[in-house]
Structure formats: C-alpha cells, structure tokens
Amino acid sequence: MLRMLTKKDTTNVQEGLATDTMEVLHVGCLAVEVPKDQQEKIAKELLGKYNCVPVFLNEQLKDKFYKGCCKQLLWPLLHYQVPLSPNSTSRFDPLLWQAYIAANKKFAEKVTEFYDPERDYVWIHDYHLMILPSFLRKRFHHVRCGFFLHSPFPSSEIFRIFPMRDEILRSLLNCDVVGFHTFDYARHFLSCCQRMLGLEFQSKRGSIAIDYFGRTVSLKIMPTGVKVERLTGGFEWPETLWRRGEIMHEFEGKTVLVGVDDIDPFKGIELKLQAYHLLLKLHSEWQGKVVLVQIANPARSTSKDISELQSTIHTLVETINSEFGSEGYKPVMLLERSVPLHERIAFYSCADCVVVTATRDGMNLMPYEYIACREAAPQNEGEDRSLKQSMLIVSEFVGCSPSLSGAIRVNPWNVAHIADSYYQAITMSPRERAVRHEKHWRYVQHHTAAFWAESYFNELKRVCNINSRLRCYGLGFGLSFRVVALDPDFRKLEASSLVSAYSSSKNRAIMLDYDGTLTPSSSLTTVPNPEVTDILAALCADDANKVFIISGRPRSELDSWFGSERLGELGLVAENGFFYKSARKGSQWKTQGTLSEVCSWHAIVLPILQLYTESTDGSYIQEKESAIVWHFEDADPDFGNWQSKELVDHLESVLVNESVQVVKCPTTVEVKPQGVNKRKAVEGVLAEVGSDLDFVLCMGDDRSDEDMFACVENVSFSPHMPAEVFACTVGQKPSRARFYLNDTNEVLDTLHALSAQSAQHSSRE
Question: Cα torsion for 134, 138, 140, 144, to the nearest 10°?
Fold first, then answer.
C-alpha cells in the first residue's frame, strides 16, 4: 500500500499512480472547516468512497500553518524572495513556525493510525510537509518514506538565511528518496547539505546519493508529466466543443496568444503584458491581428504584494486596450476567474502560441497540456492534418523549460527579449512550427504522469530495499532527530566478552589510534592526560601484551608524550606508518625508506602547495618529515573542493616519476611515500608479535583507521594465526570494524577493565 500525503491539489500525481497494482490511500486536508461533531462521519465516508483520510486542522491552526508559514515564509523563500524590509511579512515568525510543526505532527499522527511498517510506503508531496519525515522516522526507524518537492529549491545563499534551515535539511534527509523537477534544484539541495551539514554526495550508476549516518538517501531528478488521455479525451465532451466554437468565432482571422497563470508575483504576468505592449508598438502591422488571452486564476493568498500586482495588471490591460484597441478589437482579453478544464482545453486548442514568463516556478505543466490539446484538436476547414502545429515561449526559470527544447526560451526580466520572441513566434513558418510541435509531442506522450510516478516509486522501492537490511538507532531530539544505520553484524563492544577473551589469551596485540580514540578530537589540548598514560603503563606491564600507538602525528610529539621510562615497552607508529618503533625497551625509530628520498620530492611539492594556499582563502600546509598535507577544511566548501581536485591532477602529473601517492580526503590532500599507510603498520605489528598470537584488539575513529580494521579482520580468517579479533571504531557509524564504542570515555573504561584484569592476574601469580 502507498500512503500519499499532500497539502495541495496534486491531481496529476494521483492519476499517475498505478492504482490497479497497489492500494493508494490519500492523506490530506479539506478546504472547508468541518464541525467536530461531524468529523468522524465525514472521515468514514471519505475513506469508504474515495480512499481518502482527512487531517482536520482547526481554523486558527490552518491559517497560521498554510496562509502564515507556508505562504508567507516558505513560498517566498523557495522562490528566491529575501525579506529585506523590517516590515516584510516574509520575516521569520516563531509562532508561524510552531504552527507549521503542529500541523506536520497532526499529519504524522494520522499516518501512524494507518501505516503498516511491514508493507506500506509513504510518499510526501511538497513544501507544506517538509518536517514530517523526521516525525515519521522517529516513530518508525525503518519507515519507507519518499518526498517530492513540486516547487523550486533555492541556492544555498538564499536558503541559508532561514533560521530553521538545518531542521528542514535533516528532515528531508530522513527520507529514503528526495525528488526534484530539475538538476538545478537538486544541485542547490546538495550544496546546502554540503555547506550547512558538511555532507558529501556520490554519483553511482546514474543516481545521486548522500550517505546520511549510514543510510542511503537517493536524489531523484525527474519532471512530472500530464495524463494525456484525460486531455485528449476532453474533445469528446460537448461543452468543450461548444466553447471551442465560441472562441474560434470570436478570434477568427487573428493570431491567438494564451497565458494561464495564478495571480502571484512570481508568475511574471506584468512582464508578459509589458512585452506585449512593446510588440504592438514596434510592429504596428500586427495591431488588429493578434490577441493575448490572459487567464488569471484567483490568488491563493492575500497580501499587499497581491493587491499591487492586481492593480498593475489592470492598469497595463487598460493601457494596451485603449492605445491599440478599436471597435470590435481588444488586444488583451483578461479572464480573472478559475477556468474549468473543458474551457482550458478549448483555449489551448485555439492558441497559436502559449506564453509562460514566470520569474520562478517549480514545474508548470501548462505547456505540456497545451501540446497535448493541440495534437488532439479537431481539424479545421482547410487545415493540413499532417501539419500539427504549436509554439511555446517559456521562461528559462521554469522547471519544464529544460525538457522543451523546441520552445523559445526567454529571460522574463528582459522585456525587449520577450517582445522579440513574440514576433519570432507569430511569424514562424508553419513547417518550422510543425517540426517543433512534433518534437514536444513525442516527449509529452512518453513522459506522462504515470511514467513519472512509476519511475519515482521504483527508485523508492530500490533504496528502501537497501536501507531495510540495516540496523537502526535513533539519535537526537526534536527536529534534530536522525537514525544511525549500521550493518546487522555491527554491535557494541561488550566489556565482559572482551575481558573474558583477554583473560584466556597468552599472546596479545593491542593497537590504538590516538586522536579521537584515546583523546577527544575536540579537546583543546592534544597532550594525553594522566589517566591515558596510567592505563597504557598498566597494559605494557603485562608480558603477554604488545601495545602500540598507531598515529598520524609526528614522531617527535609521540616521543615527548610516551617516551618516559615506564612506557619504555610501548610501541609507537608515527605519520601513519612511515616511522616505526618496536615494543621493546631501548628500541629506536625505523623508517619505510630514507628521508633523503622523501626530501627530494618535498622540494617539488611545496611550491605547488604554496601557490594553491595563496589562492584558496582558509587553506594551510602541514609539513611532516615524510609527508605534506594541504588542509582546506576552513575554505569555502565548493571552492576548496574544486581546488583540491585541480591540485590532485596537478600533483599527479608533476610526480608521475616519483615513488609517492597523492591521497584526497574530504578536507585534505596528502602527498606521502608510496605504500605508507596504517595497514602496513599493522602488518609490521603482527609480524613482531608472532604466529602464536591469540588476541587482537584494534581501536580507531576515522577513515585512515579503516585500513587497520581491514587488516586485522583478515587475521580471524587466517588458519596459521587463529586469534580472537576485536576491531572497534569510536562512534556509531559505518565501518569495516565489527564493534563500536560511543566515545573516548568508553574506550578508556574498556582499556581500564583490561588493565585491571592484568593486575589481578599478576597478583595471583
């Protein structure tokens, strides 16, 4: 069963679902207020007759939610309107946001009543319910949930001004699939996730995905379509044919331009009229021969901007009609009312050109409807049936624009350009208009609402199937809630089982990362506290133990921290394996290669890194004995990432004959000797301990430690080294390790338990 949730009219969405293969339950609000004593009766009737479940919101909540938060705050934000004026109604209002939360909670409660976690999917539509996924994910950790945004998604520079930006992003990432009409909108969403949440995305086999705490969140980019059969079948309705006959008679001998828009500041109606005025002024030969029919649907909200827009439209229409009109001829026909489908089909079928000049719009299916109606329109007398014609003028800021390659694309803010496009459209040859129509018709009849819905739902099933195999844990409170998804075999390291294996073993290897494992990464000081050194000393005192610190830090720092007499048998690995000191008293540092060889390429690399550092604000260079690291974590995320990719290409081309490797990480580019990594270091430790090894504990916290985990896991499958292996990462996150501990405190508690066991064993002896 598919639960589809929407706060808006999504007729095309509903018609696109394959209701013959699945049961679809629609959850939404009613446009009218229903008395409390009638709500139960109406809910039963809607469910029984139409498979619809109403969410009843009281009038006050509905006004604050829909007219307030949705229309005053979110709608302008998504359409690039920044509330600069202190008196702007688009300024953030905490009370309206609380109403938005309350309404979304109401939807979550209603879904919970009907949702079956074993077989149902939830498909949420549009910006009215953007925080609903967080409520559902908190209630059902494995909820199969998708979201589709039917409006634009603004660039990060616009979206970042919204105070609740992180909550919205995290909620959308609590879905399995997030859908957008165009790549531009998806790109803006990815940029926001990167800049505000520090998340990266991956492109794999044609899909874009974000790894969000172990879960795969897929981005589906696909414009919606229309139900072609519904539009073409409209010509069998008597009212359509009657109205079409009226329109053809009224505009006989004239070229008809049609626009269908809501009364909304983003629809660009006034720009369309200004351009039309300019057309008639520049090309007087078309006066009396061309008509613009502007259908203006009633505004969905009331505000000062709407009133000013209506006044401007009326003024422009009166000006054009008075300046260029004559007896029996009005250049502009303005219809300020809702137009039923049969009348809309009639206007489309008579239109020589449809004009869309929105300054920002999510999709706008009107051009698709127009193409379908022109294709199915009855043949006029003397008309060549083989030459079906249509023409489109479409704003480049509308979601349907990329898919209409035969349309004349315009910048709606350039009135002169729109006027030129009018002239180009009405003077275009019939053959050219037919070619463009054929191209559009092929697209429209294939990319229908059903095709769009089926494609999205298939992606939702695919991603949910991947995520359903994972174990999930809830973290965070309120709208910051998220689910950490882990492999089913990934579990917390229990001290009791570890101590049991430790006490029964005779030859042990204990390998520990330093930063983020023995000391918090966020700590103001990097020097180990006395508790750490005491635990390490106690472990080293056990003759059955070989204890190693494996770190990326320089050897000078490790020596200064762990070079005391009581830690003389502590093994040290510095700079991720280039320097190695055995776990024996009096051991000296060994290297993987000679420093003179390293220094030879240092001289080549440093000037290049300095060049990139100068041109990338926020970046810096860290020079080690064996490696050089370029850090860009404090740089602009996009620019830093671009520069890092360019730097990698630059370095690889320059160092092609050197025995080095260039490694790009999320916020660093490291140049180091070939074959130097923590895996090699672990192999050295295991060789030193010997083949009679029977216990391995390896702990780390970041990506460089994954090499260690992969290496020690191989030990558990080695027939000549049958040891009990405990690979443990710090933090609940996807890892090659089979165990985790939550933080450094738990690491120290676990190591303390082992040292206590050693002390107890020693006292018995």
Answer: 20
Q: What is the model's pTM?
A: 0.82
Residues 6+ apart with CB under 8 A from 304: 89
In tens, the pLDDT along 714-751 reads: 776 555 557 789 999 998 777 888 898 988 999 999 99
CA–CA dist 129, 106 (Å, integer): 11
Cα 745 to Cα 763: distance, rounded to the nearest angstrom:
27
Token pair 């624009």 is found at: 401
Q: Which amino acid would we find at residue 583? A: A
Query: For residue 575, is it left (φ>0), alpha (ψ between -120 and 50) or beta?
Result: left
CA distance linking residue 578 with residue 552, whole number of Å: 9
3-state SS, one letter per residue, for 38-71 = HHHHHHHHHHHHHCEEECCCCHHHHHHHHHHHHH
Instruction: For residue 224, give both structure tokens.
Output: 């919606």
DSSP string for residues in 444-489: HHHS-HHHHHHHHHHHHHHHHHHHTTSEEEEESSGGG-EEEEE-TT
Residue pair 73/66 in contact by the 8 Å Cβ criterion: no
Helix ranges (H only) for 79-143 are: 94-114, 132-139
Ramachandran angles phi, psi of 43, nearest 5°: -60, -45
Give me Rg for the CA atoms of the chain.
33
pLDDT single digits (tens) 350-390? 999 999 999 999 889 999 999 999 999 987 665 655 578 99
Residues paired with 508 in a beta bridge:
545, 695
Contact assessment for residue 481 and residue 138, using Cβ atoms and an 8 Å cutoff: yes
Query: Phi and psi of 347, rounded to 5°?
Result: -65, -45
